[in-house]
Each structure stands twice: as C-alpha cells, then as structure tokens.
Write a structure and sequence with these properties.
The complex is a heterotrimer of chains A (99), B (514) and C (504). Chain A is 37% helix and 6% strand. Chain A is mainly alpha-helical. Chain A has a domain at 6-45: Glu-tRNAGln amidotransferase C subunit, N-terminal domain (Histone, subunit A, Orthogonal Bundle), CATH 1.10.20. In chain A, α1 packs across α2. The longest helix of chain A is centred in the first third of the chain and has 18 residues, at 22-39. Chain A starts with 5 loop residues before the first helix and ends in a 7-residue tail after the last strand. In chain B, β2, α5 and β3 form a beta-alpha-beta unit. Chain B is globular, with a radius of gyration of 22 Å. Chain C is α+β, with helices and mostly antiparallel strands and 504 residues long. Chain C contains 17 helices and 15 strands. In chain C, the strands form 3 sheets. Chain C has a 9-stranded mixed beta sheet. A 3-stranded antiparallel beta sheet of chain C has the order 5-4-15, with no helix packed on it. Chain C is elongated. Classes of the chains: A mainly alpha (99), B alpha/beta (514), C alpha+beta (504). Chains A and B meet through α1, α2, α3 and β2 of A and α11, α12, α13, α14 and α16 of B. β2 of chain A pairs antiparallel with β9 of chain C. Bound molecules: magnesium ion and zinc ion. Zinc ion is lined by residues 25, 138, 173 of chain C.
Chain lengths: 99, 514, 504
C-alpha cells in the first residue's frame, strides 16, 4: 500500500478545485491507493543516469514572428461566457488574493 | 432504405470519392444516404453526439456545384466524414464527451477540420467518446455509451468508440479520431476497422481539446488502409499554430498503400506484447497474419523490449499529470458549465462545485491522480520517474528499429468485452492499452487493421504495426499489403462478415419488449 | 483594517538587520503577446483584440514570440547574466480567474538568464552591486475589477469582472539574490534598484516601463534578523514577507521602510512573522496581509509539453550583445558631460529616479537645463503633493513641448506652470491647453503699446525719470502693464518698449 489517506485526497481535491463529497473521497482514496501502488514500480527503473523525456520528438527554437494576427470580436469572446456585463466576464466575489 | 443507399454507404471512401468525381453519384446523394443510415441505426448504436443534416447537405451541394463547374477537387471531395467530438468546430457543438462543455460552440475550427472541409469532405456530425478521451470503452461518455455494431451489448472501444462505430456501422465513410494511448487503434481493433496514429507532430493538434499534450495525436479512422492513407495525406503537414508540429516533407501515404509490397521487409515481434493476458483468439489471428506475411517474402525477428513492462505505469502517471493541468481551464469563468453552490459562495466555491458536477468519475479520478503525481514531494518519484521510463521505452524502440523495418503486435489483449464488465475496475480497464501505449510514449506511428475473428467469440481482432518516427509510409505499405492478402483470403473485407445491424437492432428491440 | 504597530525606524535598525530581495516584473513592448498573435496594447476596450488563446479556449496552443525571446536575452545580457544554453518553459498551476488556463506558462528550472548583477548609485555617490539570481520569461495575467463592497477592494466585494486584454502580455521576471548590508539605507537601495532596472529596460527600448500602468512592478521581500554580540553565531534569516505589486518608485522605498518598522515591532514584542504575501496600499502607505504562504501553495510545476526548448545560438547572443546600449555607469557619465551639469545637479536627477524622464525630455527637444528644471522642480513638487511618481503625472514629450513653448517666448514661466497643471489635469497637450485656456503671451506690440500708453498717462513723470537715468522707475509701468495684461505679457518686451518710448 502506498498509504494514501482520505485527508490527502481531500487536499488534492482542494488543489484541483473539485468539491468532492465525503463518499467520493472515500472511494477515491481506495482506488487511488491501488492505482498508485501499481504505477509506483516506475521508480525502480528510473535510475539517476536515465535522463527524463518531456517531449516525444525533440525539437527546439520553434518561434512565431511578432506580427499581429486575426482576433476575436467582443461578441465572440463572450459567446460562451456563463455570465458577463457586456464587456467583461463576471465571477463571484473572490475573497482571496490577487496573484 | 433503398438498394442504392445500401450500396453507397458500403463503398470505401476512395471508391465513393471516385464516383462522386465521375458524377456517378452526387455528394448530396451520398450525404443523404448516410443521414438515412444514421436515422435507421444510431438510436441503437449511439455513435453520434450531434448530427448536422442541414449543414452536411448544404456542404454537399456546394461540392456538387464545384464538380458540375468542372473544378478539380481532391480524391475524397464530397465524401461524408464523422468528426470525433474532441475536435472543435464552429458550426457544431464540441463537448469532448463532457457535461462541462455541453453546447460549447468554438469560434474557430480545429486545423484538421479546416483541412477536411477545404478538401471537400462533408462533416456529418460529432462522434461519441469517453469524457475528455479518458477511457477504453466509450462508457465514460457523459452522454451514454456507444454500442459495438458487431454486438450491441459490447463496447466499441475507446475513447474513440463513436468514430469507430460510425465507420463500422456504415454511418460515415470515414472519420477523424484522436489517439493518446490507443484511442484510435483499440476501437478499430474491436470494431473490425482500420485506424492510424501518425507520428507525433505529423498532424496538427490545434483545435483538439487536449488530454495529454505530449501523447495526443489526431489520425484517421476508416474501413480500408487506403482510405486512412488518403485522409492522412489531407490532414497531415506543418501547422504554425502547433509548436510541436513537424516540418517534415511527407511522402504520399496513398501511394504507399497502393504500391504495398512486403518482399524483404523485416518485421519485429516483441516478446512483451504477446502471451500473458492476451486472449487465445487474438494471438491466433496475429500468428496467422505473420505467417501470411512471411509466405509473401517478409522476415520475422524476435525482439526484447524490457522497459515495455513499465510503459502502462509511466503512461498512467504522465497522462493524468498533463490532463490535470489541461483540464484546469474548465472553471466556469469564460465558457462551459457553471454551478452555483447553495447560498452562493466565492469564485473558488463556484469553480469547485462546477467541476464536481461537470466532470464524471473517471475524469475526477485521473485529475486527482495527476495532481498527486505533480505535487510537492511526489514529483520526482512519480512524474519524474515516468519521464525516465519514457526515455527507456524510446531506447527500446531505437534498438528494435536498428534491426527491423516495422514492429508487429496484437492491437489489444482481448476482443470487445461486454458493456459494464470493466466499468468499476479502472486497473483492468487500463490494461486494454498495453500494446498501444508504447507508441504514444515514444511518439512513433502505429496502424491497426482487421486480422480476422476470434475463435472464442467470433468478434473482430486487429493487428498493429509500428514504425520509427517520420516513417508513417511504412505502415501504409505493410498494412496495405496485409489487407490485400487477407481480403483475398476472406473474399471481401472483414466487415462483410459482420451481422446485419438492422437485424441486430430488431432482435434487441424484441428482447427489450419481452 | 486595524492599524499595525510600527517601531521607530532607527530603533528597528539598532535591533535588527534587514535582508531584502526583489522580484521585478517587466512587461515587454512587443507588438504581440508572449504566446499568441493578439496585439499587445494598453488601454483597449475590455476583452477586445483577443485570440482564442488569450481566453484559454479549448483546443488552443501557445507559440513563442521570437521578439520576446530576443528582448529577454538582451535584458539578461544587460543584467550581466549568463544566457542559458538551453532554456525551457514550465507550467505553474494555480486557479485564479484572471489566469485563463489556470496555469501560467513560466520558466522554472531552466530560466533564459541567470547569475548577474546590477550596479546602483546612491544619493551620496556610493556604488552597490545588487546580485541577480535569474531572469525568466513568462506571461501576464488579466485584470480583475472588484465591484461593490468598500472602495473596489477585493475584501467585501459583491462580484468581480475580468478583462483578459493583459493576459498573455510577455513578462520578464528579474529575481535578485538576498541583499545584505543595506542597513538604514535599505529603503533607498530598494528604490535605486528598481530605478536602475527601469533605466536599463528603457535604454534597451524593450518596455514602456511605466510603473503607474503596471509595465514594471516590484514584489519586495523583507526579513529581519536580530543583531547578536560579536563572536555569537549569526542567526539564520528571519521569516520574510513578500509585498506584491508595488507600482511606484516612491512606494518601493516606503513599503520597505514600512515592513522593517512593522516586523521590528512584532519581533521586539516576542511575536513571530507570518510568511505571507502582503498588499501595498498606495493611499494609506501601509501593507496588509494577503494569503499565507503555506503548503497550499503547491504550483505543481512541470515542463510545458506544448512548447519546445529555446536554444539560442552563439551568433544570436553575440549579435544581441553587440547591440546593447552602454553600461548604466558609462551612460550616467556621458549624460552628465553632455548636459553640462555639476555633480550636484546631476545627482539631483539621479536621486529622484528621473534620469529616464530627463533624457527622454531632452531627446524630445528641450534643453537639458529646462528638462532638469521642470522635472526636479515644479513636477516633483506636484508629484509629492499627489503622493505619486513624477513620471506618472506627465509624459516626457509634453514636458519637452512645454519647455519649447517657454523657450520660444510663447509662455512665461508663470503661464507655463498653469499650462502644466492643465496637462496634468488631462486637458491635453501643452499646445491644446494654451489654446483652450487662452494662456499665450501677448506678443502683439500694438496691444502692449496701448497698455503702456494707458499706464504712462496715469504716471506722467515716469518717462522723465528714465531720461534722467533712473531706469528703475520703469518698473512701475511694467507692473501696471503686466497687471492689465493679466500676466500674459513678456515683461522683458514691455521693458524694452518702455525704454524705447523714453529714448524717442
Ligand atoms: Mg513573484
Ligand atoms: Zn512572475
């Protein structure tokens, strides 16, 4: 057992912004524990001498010229918005901190 | 359904395109024939999430007018195509199989959709899929499962079960799919169709709703190898909107399929991709296909790929990690579902309630797993290690391809299982992708084509070929050659051995009535 | 908000050693955004000129702006940094409604530039090297407006509105190493450092560097450690706070001073400092607690799979190095000589953080003397009264235009001060204010002669006195004329005309 606790799952859910119910947390704790157990074997072969691969095909220096392209109209920008004030997206109070 | 309709829908995309070009059939006729077929069978198959008859017929009429005006169009102009719902479209909703995107209309078309429209293909609608392409059975679609046209109580594979079932059930001539760990190839395997995952970067990902960015690749789904080749020729090529898009000058895949020849071809067979966990009928058809190739001049080389044992584990760390980040944008602010918790709440509460209500259980499971794999203190052990396994898998492939031209394996361990059978056992579900995942980890291309029916259950079995990156043409060569040999043996395509779908539907209705 | 207790600054320095660190975000003035072809402009209508990527729409992908990479390398070189052989992008994951993808594309373990230093000059001419740890490329977030509650603050707002125009604007974040030994000059060092960064990016031409627009923003880290007797082991660094988005030079200085005083008061009482981000309030000159930095702050960085590494060629680096403007110290010496200022005059400009403004004003056509006079004089006075940076009140171009009008005799100094107020009040360019307010000097001799005649009629003995050699008697007439012209006359010209009349 990798020993994932319900508390840990609740914290991960908070990080991932998913309001899991207590039942969901319980079932996910069991499932996650099993999954993590089965995938943890990657650590065995991942020795320090093996470099990590983040991109399957190695490319570099892929750039775009600094030239303005086509843009959306305001209507298009807002077309899928759950709420807006005619020009800006509207969200509930934040009561957090601006980054 | 008239005989004419029946004939039209059974043509390969290449043949239908040729008849449309010659004027023997109009695109409107071909489109209407497919729309009729959808009307007749899709209630039972549920390959489509959205069908757009008016748009399709209007597009078909435009192609017909161009042909009438003597314009020279491409080989698939006028041919109806099904589009996996993972690809965004301006004129049809794009949901990626999720409630969180219900009704979402994109202000732009995916590059591949743009390309097929420009080539004169007729989008019929959007096909069903596991939510955000997470799954191997299409049972994780928020809009209900798709049924396998060979047996309606069985899975069509996933995540692209909708595109595979649409093509296998003659609800589209050809389709677009996406393959992150086998989502094109495994559905093709269980539905008796052809599917190709091109080299990573061969086809633009722009406009594909991302699952795992370093693994996702768009590709063709069809009934013949040539059809897939023709479609890859259309959708492939460099796209400046996708930084990972390759600048390779691609040879014609259609030529490779047409000039297929396995004389002197060295085919590698990997120890780790057969044996334990593989159904006998799957292995039997695989062995016979290899024998057929050998009889026609190919040479088999046994290979070892020790790191493949860890490929699934690496995959189920990399995928959830990337997905947890890619799916963060579904937060109820700019688009998509918004759920306000009781009594209001902060924006954080709204996001959390929305994501709880909008994502299905498999998506939540993988987001939590991915969040875990990336979080402070676990990154090196999980995500970091998985990326190292990726290096080892690439090294195994490099060693293999220094000895052989292509690698062959069964596409998946089993034939189509019953709907619901593995739904509550995520680990069992994950094992379906054992043979397809290594190609995604390494970025190399893979094709699957029908190899026959399993002795145990009479269901379709596929064979997979893999080639080095950039060598997609080799797949169309070997696939085209094997297809010719098998079709000659069977006296027609494997799909012709499928039970009549209308009869299956009638029987199922009777069963339900009883 | 309860007012924090502050310790006297000198007392605080007696008890504690301040250690500082800065993160300065520089918005690059490229034509398009960091990863999309959306225009990079300030002040457009909300949510206009966006591409699907600016909104994080499904299916969108980033592509790196080549110019932003070149600018970042130039900045790295100007900061004396090494340029990474290979640098890569990473995703910084956190949910916030101004962040369209809910991750920021930034750089993590492979920044484009690392290990450099910036030389700053203090008021007394002391030179200090500020060590730079790294400079990395990233994208800006959108803008939130908090509606309802008290005064548009985030606390107690009813709801918020999001404008994504700024989302994706290219940023370079410059991170210093810990800065020791600043002692009582720490606030001054803070201001001089940010001012030096500003001078560098302006001379490179890679940013508009207007702090009031947020083109250049400073996060100031401050911690204190108790002083110990000699021979006693130095205690570890104290807990630091990060005061975010300090948007003026003046505030950087004040914020550092405030945090030293606030932390000292807490520590002296035996309390402990919470590791947290703090907000700077320009209006009250105080900081307030933001979110505590805890384990919740887990950004889950991982390599950005949608972007490839940046591997600048040696040729590119050489090309950009060759194109670098002169070193700041060399530039200061050159400008001082070119402008013909004394040490004192030049340091006056330097210490007010107005070198950029003065040089831009000179470039726009003013004489160095006039540029210096206006910026360090009247504009600085008005800025002080308004609790703002001088640069935020008026553009260099407008100051130059004003100086030119004075030079040409169109305005007297007194009139020019009125025009300046009009420009700052937003009435337009100096010429527009002159036209609208009718403030120009009356240069029509006919009108002046008529006024002189009137004044002489009232004081008939004046001409006689002048002819007798009592030239100062002209003053009374000049005063009367100036009064009659409501000050819009050139006193020197009036004097000339009066003397002409006497000698006629
Ligand atoms: Mg910071
Ligand atoms: Zn930053």
């Amino acid at each position: 057992m990798s020993g994932i606790s319900a508390e840990q799952v609740a914290h991960l859910a908070q990080l991932a912004r998913i309001d899991l119910s207590p039942e969901e947390i319980l079932s996910l704790t069991t499932e996650l524990d099993q999954i993590v157990d089965s995938v943890a074997k990657v650590t065995a072969v991942a020795t320090p001498d093996v470099p990590a691969t983040s991109h399957p095909i190695p490319l570099q220096n892929v750039f775009r010229p600094d030239v303005v392209g086509e843009t959306l109209t305001l209507e298009q920008a807002l077309q899928n918005a759950p709420a807006h004030d005619g020009s800006r997206f509207k969200v509930s109070a934040i009561l957090g901190e601006e980054q | 359904m008239s005989d004419n309709t029946r004939d039209i829908i059974r043509l390969s995309a290449a043949d239908l395109g040729a008849r449309i070009a010659s004027g023997a059939v109009t695109s409107v006729q071909a489109t209407q024939a497919h729309l009729d077929r959808i009307d007749a069978v899709d209630g039972a198959v549920h390959a489509y999430l959205h069908v757009a008859p008016e748009l399709a017929l209007a597009a078909a009429a435009r192609v017909d007018a161009q042909i009438a005006a003597g314009e020279k169009l491409g080989p698939l102009a006028g041919v109806p195509i099904a589009v996996k719902d993972v690809l965004v479209t301006t004129d049809m909703p794009s949901t990626s199989g999720s409630k969180i995107l219900e009704g979402y209309l994109s202000p732009f078309d995916a590059t591949v959709v743009k390309k097929v429209r420009e080539a004169g293909l007729i989008p019929l609608g959007k096909t069903n899929m596991d939510e955000f392409a997470m799954g191997s059975s299409t049972e994780h679609s928020a809009y209900g499962p798709t049924h396998n046209p060979w047996a309606l109580d069985r899975i069509p594979g996933g995540s692209g079960g909708g595109s595979a079932a649409a093509v296998a059930g003659y609800e589209a001539s050809i389709a677009l799919g996406s393959d992150t760990g086998g989502s094109i190839r495994q559905p093709a395997h269980v539905t008796g169709t052809v599917g190709v995952k091109p080299t990573y970067g061969a086809v633009s990902r722009y406009g594909a709703i991302a699952l795992a960015s370093s693994l996702d690749q768009i590709g063709p789904v069809s009934r013949t190898v040539l059809d897939s080749a023709l479609l890859q020729d259309i959708i492939g090529g460099h796209d400046p909107r996708d930084s990972t898009s390759l600048r390779t000058e691609w040879p014609s895949m259609a030529d490779a399929a047409r000039n297929a020849n396995v004389q002197g071809l060295k085919i590698g067979v990997i120890k780790q991709l057969q044996g334990d966990g593989f159904q006998a009928g799957v292995l039997n058809r695989f062995t016979e296909a290899l024998e057929l190739l050998v009889a026609n001049g190919a040479e088999i080389v046994e290979l070892d790929a020790p790191s493949f044992e860890h490929a699934i584990a690496a995959y189920y760390l990399i995928l959830p990690a990337e997905a947890s980040s890619n799916l963060a944008k579904f937060d109820s602010v700019r688009f998509g579902l918004r759920v306000n918790p009781q009594g209001g709440g902060t924006v954080e509460d709204v996001m959390s309630a929305t994501r709880d209500a909008g994502f299905g259980p498999e998506v939540k499971r993988r987001i939590i797993l991915g969040t875990y794999a990336l979080s402070a203190g676990y990154y090196d052990a999980y995500y970091g290690s998985a990326q190292k396994v990726r290096t080892l898998v690439q090294r195994d492939f490099a060693a293999a391809f220094s000895q052989v031209d292509v690698i062959a394996s069964p596409t998946a361990p089993t034939t189509a299982f019953k709907l619901g059978e593995k739904l509550n056992d995520p680990l069992a579900m994950y094992l379906n992708d054992i043979a397809t995942i290594p190609a995604n980890l390494a970025g190399i291309p893979g094709i699957t084509l029908p190899a026959g029916l399993a002795d145990e259950d009479g269901l379709p079995v596929g064979i997979q070929f893999l080639a080095p990156a950039h060598e997609d043409a080799r797949l169309y060569n070997v696939g085209g050659a094997l297809e010719q040999l098998l079709v000659a043996q069977w006296g027609g395509h494997l799909l012709e051995q499928a039970p009549d779908l209308l009869e299956l539907i009638a029987a199922a209705a009777e069963e339900g009535a009883r | 908000m309860a007012r924090a207790e502050l310790m006297d600054f000198d007392k605080a320095l007696e008890l504690f050693e301040p250690v500082m660190g800065f993160e300065v975000h520089v918005e690059l003035n490229t034509k398009t955004k960091m990863f999309s072809e959306a225009p990079n402009v300030f002040g457009a209508e909300p949510n206009t000129g966006l591409t699907p990527l600016c909104l994080g729409l499904p299916g969108t992908l980033p592509v790196v702006n080549e110019q932003a990479v070149r600018y970042s390398i130039s900045l790295g070189l100007a900061l004396g940094c090494s340029i990474a052989e290979s640098s890569s992008f990473a995703r910084k994951n956190y949910f916030y409604p101004d962040t369209p993808k809910n991750y920021q594309i930034s750089q993590f373990d492979e920044p484009i530039a690392f290990e450099g230093s910036v030389q700053i000059e203090l008021a007394d001419g002391t030179l200090i090297d500020i060590p730079v740890e790294r400079a990395h490329m990233e994208e800006d977030a959108g803008k939130l407006t908090h509606v309802g509650g008290s005064s548009g603050r985030i606390q107690g707002a009813d709801y918020s509105l999001v404008d994504y125009n700024r989302a994706g604007v290219p940023l370079v974040e410059i991170v210093t190493k810990p800065i020791y030994g600043g002692e009582h000059r720490s606030p001054e060092i803070a201001k001089a450092y940010v001012s030096a960064i500003r001078d560098i990016v302006v001379s490179l031409g890679i940013s508009d560097a207007k702090m009031e627009r947020g083109n250049l923003r400073c996060d100031a880290n401050v911690s204190l450690r108790p002083r110990v007797a000699e021979g006693v082991e130095t205690p570890p660094l104290g807990t630091r706070t990060e005061t975010k988005n300090v948007n003026s030079l003046r505030s950087v200085e004040r914020a550092v001073r405030y945090e030293i005083q606030r932390q000292a008061a807490i520590l002296a009482k035996g309390g402990s400092i919470t590791q947290e981000t703090r907000h700077w309030h320009e209006d009250t000159g105080e900081t307030s607690a933001g979110r505590p930095k805890s384990d919740a702050d887990d950004y889950r960085y991982f390599p950005e799979p949608d972007l490839l590494p940046v591997v600048p060629s040696a040729e590119l680096i050489a090309e950009l190095r060759a194109a670098l403007p002169e070193q700041p110290a060399v530039r200061r010496r050159r400008l001082k000589a070119e402008w013909g200022f004394t040490d004192l005059e030049f340091q006056d400009i330097q210490n007010s953080g107005l070198l950029t403004e003065v040089s831009e004003t000179v470039a726009a056509g003013a004489t160095p003397a006039a540029a210096r006079k206006w910026w360090t004089g009247e504009i600085a006075r008005l800025a002080n009264a308004a609790d703002a940076d001088a640069a935020s009140l008026i553009s260099a171009a407008d100051v130059a235009a004003l100086a030119v009008l004075v030079e040409a005799g169109t305005l007297t100094d007194r009139l020019a001060r009125q025009v300046l107020e009009g420009v700052i009040a937003g009435e337009g360019t100096p010429q527009q204010v002159v036209d609208a307010r009718g403030l120009a000097v009356v240069s029509d001799d006919g009108a002046l002669i008529a006024a002189i005649d009137e004044a002489l009629a009232a004081q008939p003995d004046v001409l006689e006195k002048i002819r007798d050699g009592k030239v100062q008697a002209a003053g009374a007439v000049i005063g009367a004329v100036m009064k009659a012209m409501k000050g819009q006359a050139d006193a020197a010209r009036v004097r000339e005309l009066v003397l002409e009349r006497a000698s006629a």
